[in-house]
Amino acid sequence: MECPDTKLIPTSSAYSSPQSPKSALVSRLPYPPSKRTLSNSLFGSTQYIYYSYQFIFILISSICYINSVYIYIERA
Q1: Global pTM?
Q2: Where are the domains of the chain?
Q3: How open is the CA angle 48-58-75, to the nearest 5 degrees?
C-alpha cells in the first residue's frame, strides 16, 4: 500500500502545478494591461511611420543635393 501512496503524491503535485500558471495568467489578464499594450502598439506604429518618413525624406534630399552639386561641377 505504500507504493501507491508514493505514486499519488507526485501526481497530485504535478496536477497542482498547472493550476498555478493558469491563476498567474488569469491575474495577468485584467483590462488595464490590455489597454496599455494597445496604446503602446499604436505609439510604436506611429513612431515607426514617423522615422520611416524621416529616413525617406533625408534620402531624397541627399540625392537631390548630390545631383545639384554634380550639375554645378559639370557647368564649371
Answers
A1: 0.40
A2: 2-75
A3: 165
